[in-house]
Structures are given as structure tokens and as C-alpha cells.
Design goal:
Elements: E1 11-13, E2 20-24, H1 28-40, E3 44-49, E4 65-67, H2 74-89, E5 97-98, E6 102-105, H3 110-120, E7 128-131, H4 132-137, E8 153-157, E9 161-163, H5 165-178, E10 182-185, E11 188-193, E12 199-204, E13 209-211, E14 214-217, H6 223-230, E15 244-254, H7 257-262, E16 268-271, E17 278-280, E18 288-293, E19 296-298, E20 300-303, E21 308-311, H8 329-343, E22 354-362, E23 369-372, E24 379-383, H9 393-404, H10 410-415, E25 434-437, H11 439-442
Parallel strand pairs: 1-13, 2-3, 2-14, 3-10, 6-16, 14-24, 19-25
Antiparallel strand pairs: 4-9, 5-9, 6-8, 7-8, 11-12, 12-13, 15-18, 15-22, 16-17, 17-18, 20-21, 23-24
Helix pairs in contact: 1-5, 1-9, 2-9
């Protein structure tokens, strides 16, 4: 069923004969859930997003992203021990995965704890430490002048690597459609509620109303704003302090000639030292290297629906899709600091070609927020990627489906709950910390 091009103001029941699920957001969590549901069968699945897939504004849309399973956190490592074989061997994911290995320069105990977690789970992962001298000499000397500070060892995980993110995401959406799911273009503005406060569907900006038995919001950084504008006076519906729209900066450069050849076989490098704080994502065939700055920021603005300030993803394309070589000076300087720290003199003459702000939803502990909404029957959320959720693409949909069906194991349900019980101070992704607000560097946004 396709509802594109139909008259405004019309309501559509997505199915009259089988159970229906409406998934808002075709990013990582939404696309994966659509595929898991469609493969199970017996349900009508409709995926809604603001643009064709993969949506260039989605956090999941990217040149490439790290795929690794070295988590000291056992809960996520168990998930990734299921995901990694799919990245390597499943025909849906393996074309996009590149097992180039990964180096992690980290003064914390991350490496020791990660190796201990592998052993505790009986994994035969070959992660080990290399001396800094060995790292500088290997890989054609690409890291010869990298800034490793006073570190004397670097974690090396030969089974990790990167995946071509936008291509993998597009393939998953297409697979869901091939299994019978529908894709609807439209921008959701608010939820629709029934007489008992239950969620009955969504309203789109053009006036269309889509109704289903269950609605899943996989809306990332937009989640808090959508909930608030759906029920401005009902604070029980609002996200509160459970989730925050946060941005992070990526950038890329292109190498050619002898320089490109020198970098041809390098692993991913993540450098956690404060003077570097970023990642270099190996190199693509055309010589492109993408980088991340390991930090994030908010974007607080007055939110008309509630009259309060809320962090929201900017509408201005300058702040959410790839741009050219000129950007905000703070981020240009921050990017230069990262690229120089990662590769030293090897990139002193390399200029940045483009920048992008990636907007994701961060939770206080960087755990996901995958839960039924306790104050709105038939409404579910799958969000809180917190800048580390993408690598779970092959398996996360199964966990979301279990949540929607009430069969998610308690260990996961408790960690991803709407109202989490207590907090132990842990962080599932400790490298992405908030360093400021976007308006600190822009003054105001158009």
C-alpha cells in the first residue's frame, strides 16, 4: 500500500484485516525493526520518513561507521557477538563491512576490561595490546608521527573495522520492503490519541492521518519535540530528562597518489587522549577518509508548544547534512586538532573537504531507550542511540520486536526502560560527552 499523493486531511487505516504497526523513522532502529517484523510475517508494517531512503538527515546516514564488539559492558557485547558474524557473513550486511581492524589509544582501563569481557563470555576474539613503537612502524608508517602522548600501549582488535553506513542502511530498508513492508514519505507532526488516551496513529504535515494498532517512534533526536507537541499539557507523555537531542561533528578529506597508497591498509584509529579526541575511519577505494570528533553538544531553543527551552535538531541544512570545506570556526579548529593528532605530519598538507553535524538522541547513561510508553497504550519508542547504536543494525530490530511483544528479557528491559530503576553511574559510550551548546558558536540559528 502506498499513500503518497493522496488528498490532504484524509485518514488511512494501514490494515483492516491483519495487525498493523506504524514505524516512524527509517534510521537504524526503525529500519531494522521494520525488517524484523516483515520477516516474521502476520503483521502489516509501514515505515514513514521525511525523505527517500536512506534519509540524508538520519544519524544512521553516513559515509562509514565503526563496527566493533569490544565493549566492557557485557550486555552490549553479547548483542555484538551475535551481530559480528552477520556483518562478516550475511549477504545483506557483508558487502558493506570492511574488516580492517581497529586501534584504540586510550589511557583508561577500557582495553583490559574489554579483553576480560571477551574471556568471561568465552569469545575467541584476538584483541591484544601493541607497543606504541610497533604501531608507529607497522602499516607503512602511517602512524609514525601520530600523537599518542605518554601512552606505552595501544589496543588492537583485528576483527573490527568499518561499514559503509548509508549503503548498509539503504539495503536494510530495501530488504524490509522486499518482505512486504510499505514506505511512506511524510513528516510527522504529532501523535493521534483515542478517547482513552491510547495512541491510534500519527498526523503528517500535509494533513494525512495514518492509523495503526501499534506506533513505534524511532525518531532519534526529534523524539522529545514530537512528544511535547503531541500533548503539550500532558507532561506524562513528555520525554523529560530521559533523552536529549545532541549533535556531533564528522568531516572527511581525500588522499591521492603516494599518500593514498601509504594509507591503503590502515586500520580504524580511535584516539581518546584529550589533545586528540576523535576517530579516523581507515580509507575508501577513492581515497576518502572520514573522521569523527569525539564530543557532542546540545541546541537549546524556545519550544512554542510548551513555552520551555528544549534541545532540538536544527532545521537549517547547514547544521544537519554534508556541507563544503568552510564551516563554523570552532569546529574547523576542532577538526584540525583531531586529524593532526590522529596522523601527525602525514596529513599536515591535507585539507578538509566537507563537514557534517550528525544529530542523535542521547540518554544520561548512553543506554538505549527501547520501551513501551507507560502512559500511552499502543505507543512504543526505540531511540537513544547515543552515538554508538549503529553497529547493532543486524540485530537491534529483533530486540525492539521482543519489546513490543512483551518478551524482551528483563536484563535488557530494565536497562532500556522508560523509567529506569536507579543509576549506577555507568556510561555505555563514555567518549561522547557534551561540551557546550551549538548557539555558543553560532549566536542564533536561521
Amino acid at each position: 500500500m502506498t499513500v503518497n499523493g493522496t488528498p490532504n486531511g484524509t485518514a488511512y487505516h494501514l490494515s483492516n484485516d491483519v495487525p498493523s504497526v506504524l514505524i516512524v523513522g527509517a534510521g537504524n532502529f526503525g529500519a531494522a525493526t521494520a525488517l524484523s517484523l516483515a520477516k516474521k510475517g502476520g503483521v502489516k508494517v509501514t515505515l514513514v520518513d521525511t525523505a527517500g531512503y536512506p534519509n540524508p538527515r538520519a544519524a544512521s546516514h553516513d559515509i562509514n561507521k565503526i563496527v566493533r564488539d569490544d565493549y566492557p559492558d557485557m550486555l552490549y557485547m553479547r548483542m555484538l557477538l551475535k551481530a559480528m558474524p552477520l556483518w562478516r557473513e550475511d549477504s545483506l550486511y557483508s558487502p558493506w563491512f570492511h574488516q580492517v581492524g581497529m586501534l584504540r589509544a586510550d589511557p583508561s582501563s577500557f582495553g583490559d576490561r574489554s579483553i576480560a569481557a571477551y574471556r568471561a563470555l568465552g569469545s575467541d576474539n584476538e584483541s591484544h595490546f601493541l607497543s606504541v613503537d610497533e604501531v608507529r612502524k607497522r602499516w607503512n608508517g602511517a602512524f609514525a608521527t601520530a600523537n599518542f602522548g605518554s601512552l606505552d600501549r595501544i589496543l588492537y582488535n583485528p576483527s573490527a573495522g568499518f561499514a559503509e553506513a548509508d549503503k548498509a542502511l539503504g539495503a536494510v530498508v530495501q530488504a524490509a520492503l522486499d518482505h512486504g513492508a510499505n514506505y511512506v514519505l511524510g513528516e510527522m507532526t504529532r501523535l493521534e490519541f483515542g478517547v482513552r488516551g491510547e495512541c491510534t496513529g500519527i498526523e503528517l504535515r500535509d494533513g494525512r492521518v495514518l492509523r495503526a494498532d501499534k506506533v513505534l517512534m524511532a525518531t532519534g533526536a526529534r523524539t522529545g519535540a514530537i512528544l511535547a507537541q503531541s500533548a503539550p499539557k500532558n507532561e506524562k507523555i513528555h520525554i523529560g530528562d530521559r533523552l536529549l537531542a545532541t549533535g556531533a561533528v564528522s568531516f572527511y578529506a581525500k588522499l591521492d597518489g603516494a599518500q593514498k597508497q601509504k594509507f591503503e591498509h590502515i586500520p580504524v584509529l580511535k584516539n581518546c587522549l584529550p589533545q586528540v579526541k576523535g576517530e579516523g575511519m581507515s580509507i575508501l577505494e577513492d581515497g576518502t577518509i572520514k573522521f569523527n570528533c569525539d564530543m557532542c553538544f546540545t541546541n537549546y531553543a524556545n519550544f512554542p508548544a510548551t513555552g520551555e527551552k528544549m534541545s532540538v535538531a536544527p532545521e537549517n541544512a547547514l547544521y544537519n547534512v554534508w556541507t563544503g570545506p568552510k564551516f563554523l570556526k570552532f569546529f574547523e579548529d576542532r577538526a584540525r586538532k583531531t586529524i593532526d593528532g590522529l596522523y601527525g605530519d602525514e596529513v599536515k598538507d591535507v585539507s578538509v573537504d566537507a563537514y557534517r553535524m550528525c544529530w542523535d538522541a542521547s540518554t544520561p547513561t548512553h543506554d538505549f531507550l527501547i520501551s513501551a510508553h507507560p502512559h500511552c497504550p499502543n505507543l512504543f519508542v526505540a531511540t537513544g542511540g547515543s552515538f554508538h547504536g549503529w553497529k547493532f543494525l543486524p540485530v537491534i530490530g529483533d530486540y525492539v520486536v521482543d519489546m513490543m511483544q512483551g518478551t524482551l528479557p528483563a536484563e535488557y528491559a530494565d536497562r532500556w526502560a522508560w523509567d529506569k530503576k536507579g543509576g549506577d553511574g555507568h556510561s555505555a559510550n563514555p567518549t561522547y560527552q557534551i561540551v557546550g551548546d551549538l548557539r555558543d558558536w553560532t549566536g542564533s540559528l536561521a
